[in-house]
Amino acid sequence: MVASLPKLTSKWPAASLLAILFVALWMLGGCDSKPQVLSHSGPTMGTSFTVKWVSADAGSLERIAPLLEQSLAAVNQSMSTYIEDSELSRFNRQPAGYSTEVSDGLFEVLSLSQQLSKSSDGAFDVTVGPLVNLWGFGPDGRVTHAPSDEKIEQIRERVGFRKLHLDADRHRVGKAAALYVDLSAIAKGYGVDELARVLEGEGIDSYLVEVGGELRARGQKPDGSPWRIAIESPVSSGRDVQRIIEVHEIGVATSGDYRNYFEENGVRFSHTIDPATGRPIRHKLASVTVLSPTCAEADGMATLLTVLGDERGYQYAVDNGVAAFFIVKSEQGFVERMTPAFEPYLTE
Q: Is residue 330 part of a domain?
């Protein structure tokens, strides 16, 4: 699983998508009769967000921007592990055996998380939070030394998605152990989906929403062309483009191990923790980009595939019809590998 950054998430900056819009912001001297791209951005969840939408009403910016801010604040207040009185933080402080009714949004994210966990036999596991913290990638702060085997095994007793119990009829969540849930690998994607819901509720049907590199797109630009985004090359020295894809009615998320890590005695320890071992991943997968109907699903799936690695992850994606693009480290450099479901999105 992926570690957290201040306020909510972790997976960023482990992976990133650069939004390439290739479109001017048309400001027509007060005339708003023609569609134009409007934009609102700012800080959120320890990173930043940008929302772009197509509208013939320039005044929609003043109306919609506060709604977007309120939506993100609500997600953060529900799911952040960096806010002491957030809904999730209050749940995490409770002992084994505790059960409570939770908000619709939190229950939705936990339900999707459990589905991903079951389908991958625990490769995706939101209860991995204590291990994320142990390795220095959570709210407890950074570490410079790898923890002892004894400490890892001790913490692992508090980890396991099967110890998290959901009651769909009553929207209740319970814990069979002293669990600490970390939604950093999926909540950012959910935040993107919430921003999309705000836009659609305001009658906007063409937009590109981005939070910390995770995206969701719908419709097209004013000139009728599709939204185009770039998949970043997994190099720590800069932000190079690996591939450009065209997207519509889709969520996009990337996970990787090339930005958030620490080194000790020449060994790199990734922020992505394998729940099966309690230790950072050690395989050759540098990054994976996933396309799914929702950004929350793409976000969680990208982490799932990162934990599984280049071989098992690719096979899982093919078997489950996932549109995924893998960048694998080799002695000759990076090697690309994509599932059949991903190929139609490439521009070249």
A: no
